[in-house]
Amino acid sequence: MYGKSPARVLPLLLGLQLTALCPAAAVEIYTSGALEAVNGTDVRLKCTFSSFAPVGDALTVTWNFRPRDGGREQFVFYYHMDPFRPMSGRFKDRVVWDGNPERYDVSIILWKLQFDDNGTYTCQVKNPPDVDGLVGSIRLSVVHNVPFSEIFFLAVAIGSACVVMIIVVIAVVLFQHFRKKRWAKRADKDVEIKSKEEEKLKQENKASIYLEESD
C-alpha cells in the first residue's frame, strides 16, 4: 500500500478508528443564562464547569463583559492561582472572587449594580490539557424592582396554608378544652343535685321514723 508494509498500516488505521470513537474532551461551562438584579444591590454571577483533567495550578478563568447597547468587550476579572481584579475601568473595586476551583466553581460577585451594567458576561475556563470548550454567558438585566416570581407566590401560598392549619389546630384545641370544662361543670352540678336529693331523702326518712316513734 503505497510502499508501506501492512505492519505499519495496521496501527495507523487502528489509531484513526480510536480517534473517531473517542473524540477529544472539552471543558463544559454552566451558568444561569439570564439573571435579573435590582439597581444598587450586589449580585453573584455563578459559573461552574466540568473537566476531564484534574484541577491544578494551570487553571485559568477569564470574565469579560459586553454592554447590551453594543460596544467593545471589556475585561471584568481574571484568575490564575490567585484572583486578579481590574485596576481601572467600570469594574474597578466592584468585583470580587467568590469561586472555589476544587469544587469546580469560578463565580464572582459584582458590587453596587448600575443600569449601565446591563449586558452579557462571559465566563471562560481553561484547565490544561483541557483547554477547548464553549464560553459560558450570563445576560444580566439591572432593574428598579425584581418582579414577584412563581416561587414567591408558591411560598406565600404554602405560608398561608400553614397559618390556616395552625388556626384550625388552635380552634380544635380550644373547643376540646371548653367542652371538657363544660362537662366538668355539668358533672359537678349533677353531683351537687344528687347530694341535695340524698340529703332531702335522709331528712324525710328521719321525719318518718320520728312520727312512727311518736305513735
Task: Explain how this protein is built.
- The protein has a six-stranded mixed β-sheet, with no helix packed on it.
- The chain is 38% helix and 26% strand.
- It contains two helices and eleven strands, in the order αβββββββββββα.
- The longest helix has 65 residues, at 150-214.
- With 215 residues, it is an alpha+beta fold.
- It has helices spanning 6-21, 150-214, and strands at residues 28-31, 34-38, 43-45, 47-50, 60-67, 74-80, 82-84, 95-97, 108-110, 119-126, 136-143.
- Residues 1-26 form the signal peptide.
- This is Mpzl2 protein.
- It is a single-pass type I membrane protein.
What is the tally of beta strands? 11
Oligomer: single chain
How many domains? The number is: 2
**What spatial form do the alpha-carbon principal axes imply?**
rod-shaped
Stretches where pLDDT is under 50 for at least 5 consecutive residues are 1-23
Strand percentage? 25-35%
Mean pLDDT rating:
82
Please give the radius of gyration in angstroms.
Answer: 41 Å
Please give the share of residues in helix.
25-40%
Name the CATH class of the largest domain: Mainly Beta
SSE topology string = HEEEEEEEEEEEH
